[in-house]
Write a structure and sequence with these properties.
It contains 11 helices and 8 strands. By secondary structure, it is an alpha/beta fold. An 8-stranded parallel beta barrel has the order 1-2-3-4-5-6-7-8, surrounded by 5 helices.
């Protein structure tokens, strides 16, 4: 039985003060939940303060990005050991916004995943197709390539440190959502791709999240699908009450 994950990605939102208000409120709303993992990815500037507020709670922290080098002259970048030092056990890698606006490619994503694994940090590997890809019926091909390239040279025994998030680009921040059936089709393909890369035992153990305009009113339908193991939440994760409703899916 795969343990569900509900993760919130704040992107470039909230000051430190706003973040602390959020976490204090969220702790009260989901304090008794222990059958699923709750993860929040605030901006870098809030991670240390957020850790001090959440360290004795059931809320885990993720960074939104890392660089693959351990240290050096890389102005503006953050090393894996740095996020680990401020309490992060997770990192989002390969988000479509990183790929689109900052020109990250599969090779860079792969380097980041391997560097996170070296520090014992779990990667949330994001994959997803554009609207043009979907219209050309290239969804499964595009997502399969992102999976196999992103996990190049990642060993089967390291797959415990990998979570996959399927985020169709056309559904991120647009209000459009892939239907539960569309999402399940891609999630099943991801699991079949993992089975080809590794073996069934590994493929069956990896948790695959759906992201793309997830809200309290569609989370139950999504989570009812056999290969959807959780959600990577954007806009609806910026409000503690809204995010808590998603965490508390039935």
């Amino acid at each position: 039985m795969r343990r569900p994950i509900i993760a919130g990605n704040w992107k470039m939102n909230k000051t430190v003060e706003e973040a602390l208000l959020f976490f204090n409120e969220l702790k009260d709303l989901v304090g008794g939940v222990d059958d699923r993992e709750i993860i929040v990815a605030p901006p870098f500037i809030s991670l240390f303060s957020a850790f001090n507020v959440t360290k004795n709670s059931n809320i885990h922290l993720a960074a939104q990005n890392i660089y693959w080098e351990k240290k050096g002259a890389f102005t503006g970048e953050i090393a894996p050991a740095m996020i680990k030092d401020v309490g992060c056990g997770y990192v989002i890698i390969g988000h479509s916004e990183r790929r689109q606006f900052f020109f990250e490619n599969d090779e860079m994503v792969n380097k980041k995943i391997k560097s996170a694994l070296e520090e014992g940090i779990t990667s949330i590997l994001c994959v997803g197709e554009s609207l043009a890809d979907r219209e050309k019926k290239l969804t499964l091909s595009v997502v399969g390539t992102q999976i196999s390239s992103g996990l190049k040279e990642v060993l089967a025994e390291d797959m415990e440190g990998i979570v996959v998030a399927y985020e169709p680009i056309w559904a991120i921040g647009t209000g459009m959502t892939a239907s539960a059936e569309q999402a399940e089709e891609v999630h099943l393909h991801i699991r079949e791709t993992l089975n080809q890369l590794y073996k069934k035992e590994v493929a069956d153990s990896v948790r695959i999240l759906y992201g793309g305009s997830v809200k309290p009113d569609n989370i139950n339908e999504l989570m009812a699908k056999p290969n959807i193991d959780g959600a990577l939440v954007g806009g609806a994760g910026l409000d503690a009450k809204s995010f808590a409703k998603i965490v508390l899916f039935k």
